[in-house]
Design a protein that fits this description.
Elements lengths: L1 H15 L2 H24 L4 H13 L3 H11 L4 H18 L1 H25 L14 H20 L4 H24 L5 H31 L13
């Protein structure tokens, strides 16, 4: 019973400790950062940084790394994301059923946001293909693995060093895939920054909705049965 109560209280701590305001503030900061990046990118203000980074990455290119990078970058493709979601849902179902249900909706929304942002920006990629800004791979993976990091940090009962290690492991795929996009000449550095900021803004807002708005709605309807948590 103690473990169950601890899991149920993990969401309520978000409300009690003033985190709704911090979630919204962080989401607003990320959104403002994205809008600034979008404006500067449209005006070619990152020309030197983008081309300098591209030239540096080209120095690291070797033929033997092309296939591994293509495999790595596929993690952010549709098939890769579907596989990640399919793996995550049964795992989340054991610890947080609300997020297990919300995850597919969250990722579908990330896909729609990606399309809107790319259409609005209309910026070409380094290889002159369309729809460069922001990076959809980075956006989607920031949302997915960012949620995993949040849930590990907030809900795990393990020691702090193990939580920190788990969060680090969850962050590695985002960094590796982001580099693969540069390596394969699919994106500018500013495209990656755009994907990071808008993905973070979207994720933080989604966390606020799921864990604050919906939690308060549940508490306001005491007649509804509580979500069952699995026993351990």
């Amino acid at each position: 019973m103690t473990v169950k109560a601890g899991r149920r209280s993990s969401v309520r701590r978000v409300v009690r400790r003033g985190k709704p305001r911090r979630l919204l503030s962080a989401a607003l900061v990320s959104l403002v950062g994205y809008l600034a990046l979008a404006i500067f990118a449209a005006q070619q203000q990152f020309f030197a940084l983008d081309y300098g980074t591209r030239a540096w990455v080209h120095l690291l290119q070797y033929e033997a790394l092309n296939l591994p990078m293509q495999l790595v970058t596929s993690l952010g493709d549709r098939i890769g994301l579907v596989l990640l979601i399919a793996i995550a849902i049964p795992l989340l179902w054991r610890v947080n059923r609300r997020w297990a249900v919300a995850l597919p909706v969250l990722m579908a929304g990330a896909g729609a946001l990606q399309w809107l942002a790319k259409t609005a920006a209309g910026r070409d990629r380094p290889n002159l293909a369309p729809w460069g800004f922001p990076s959809g791979h980075v956006l989607s993976l920031v949302v997915f693995f960012g949620l995993m990091i949040y849930l590990i940090a907030m809900a795990s009962a393990r020691r702090r060093r193990w939580r920190a290690l788990a969060c680090l492991v969850a962050a590695i795929p985002v960094v590796v895939v982001a580099f693969s996009r540069l390596y394969l000449d699919k994106h500018w550095l500013s495209d990656l920054a755009g994907g990071l900021t808008i993905g973070a803004a979207y994720l933080l807002l989604a966390i606020w909705v799921v864990e604050v708005v919906l939690t308060r709605a549940d508490k306001a309807a005491p007649g509804l049965p509580e979500t069952r948590e699995p026993s351990t």
